[in-house]
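Much of what follows relies on a compact textual record of a protein's fold. A record is reproduced here so that you can trace the correspondence yourselves:
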Amino acid sequence: MALKSSLLVLAVLAAVAATGAQAQLGRILISGIVPCSNGTLINAAATPVFPNATVQLRCGNRVITSATTNSDGVFAMSLDLISSLLSTLLSSCNLIVNTPLASCNASLSGTGILQSALQLLQGLIGGLIGGILNLAPSNFSFIPQLT
């Protein structure tokens, strides 16, 4: 199930209250594999990977951070929990890959983006207390660009 912004905000605020609002609450780690496919609900384990793709974390229309996949299609992003909190208050966040699919497979044509919602990899409160909240893409889907 995709992570809902309001749930994250409420949990963070509860953790702040419970811990006495420590100066450093922790980090958000987002990592995963980007598939090279133009399908929907793409299973990254069953498709070729997308090397050297730029992955953006977008909340609404704002790019929060980005990372580039390695030769195995793997990316990792790390964010400060406090600075990320304001971005999630008003809008949902998604991972976006704008890089043309033809750059990972010349036979894949079409213009669009790969997009994925985020999912929690561990218990929310446990992650907050432990200092690192681990998130990953749910499933990437190709969203064609309307021309």
